[in-house]
Amino acid sequence: MKKAIQSIATLTLICTIISALLAAVNFVTAPIIEKAEAEKANEALLVVMPEGKGFSELSVSDYELPNSVVSLYREESGGYIFKMVTTGYSSGLTVMCGIDKDGKITGAVCLASGETLGYEKSYGENFKGLDASAADSVDTISGATKTTSAYKNAVKDALSSFIIVNGGSVDIRTEEEILADNLSAALPNGENFTKEFITEVLDGVSAIYKAGNGEGFVVVSGEKFIGIDKNGNALAENDEEIKALALSALEKHKDSAYSEIDLSSYEGISERIEKAYKTESGNYIFDLAAAGYGINGSYHASGEYIRIKVSATQDGKIISCLTVSQNETDGIGSECAKPSYYEQYNGKTEDTISEVDAIGGATLTSRGYSTAVSKVFEAIKILKGAN
């Protein structure tokens, strides 16, 4: 018993000595590490504002800034530097942007990225010397729309933040928040709006949303949101022409009827197409099974197909695309379930489908999805050719 007590006492003494040594080492090294990190941060600041000096970090929480802004620095002459973290095809796209006292961009760089195409590495060069009125003129890059669009929006957030920290006012709502507000304003009694899958060409109308509580619909025409209540009355102050357009589009959408096509009667239809339908107006609807990572992956593949619904005109132009279900890798391939991905296919033809951006880090998902959708064009030719 006495030996056991001595062993415990010895072990306790050793732990105490080690803790004291670690504390001493931390006391010596912590200032060195802190200094090194500060120097590294200062170098990054100088990259986007080469002529700047006297940087001081401010608290982001002192201002109502866009959610993407995570760090804020003031330069002694009146310029500011903003650090934004956003999402392109992958989360963690980190952009730093410097803005001088006159509101012009001194530089923009990507500090971190999980994107795969690499356009974010040099895209910031397009913004140098621009102000808030000119930044929107910078083109997104075809084939890298999501990456460059996210980068561009981060820079615009920096420009908005510059106005705010200087006492100005800017609408910093996200696109999702603006959409939700517009839908609620158009149909005040509506709740939980969902976007309708469109099977007809609706001239002048880009989308229709249905209220989950059954109070009606909202038809979107350009920048106008037209609420139509459950009794079929167009609401708000829109002019009569727009109201008539909205009512006509909604009626056409609700009246769209279709019948299933017996695919066994046709040769050459891809196995990616599980079912096909034809509307009374001559359009086609397809239920697709895309072999993404869930089928072709080599590590923890789910064994499940991505289920997709596509409507298209008889001359081969996609009207609407929707991911119905998927079990791809969470946070990577699962991006195919977001409207920002699948709605890229809307309006595409056999010649333009290649313009759809792939999902960063999800090659098998993107390839499988695109391959399945492309079979729609082949199927339409076969179905038309047999008539």
Give a quick set of tags describing it.
33% helix, single chain, 22% strand, 387 residues, alpha+beta, 14 strands, five-stranded antiparallel sheet
**Largest sheet, described in full?**
5 strands, antiparallel
**Helix content class:** 25-40%
Kindly provide the radius of gyration, computed on alpha-carbon positions and rounded to a whole number of angstroms. 28 Å
Instruction: Output the helix-strand order.
Output: HEEEEEHHEEEEHEEEHEEHH
What portion of the residues fall into strands of 2 or more residues?
15-25%
Q: Provide the spatial order of strands within the biggest beta sheet.
A: 1-2-3-4-5
SS-derived structural category: alpha+beta
Terminal-residue CA separation: 96 Å
- Global geometry: globular
Parts with pLDDT < 50 across at least 5 consecutive residues? none
Q: How confident overall, as mean pLDDT?
A: 89
Counting H and I runs of at least 4 residues, what is the number of helices?
7
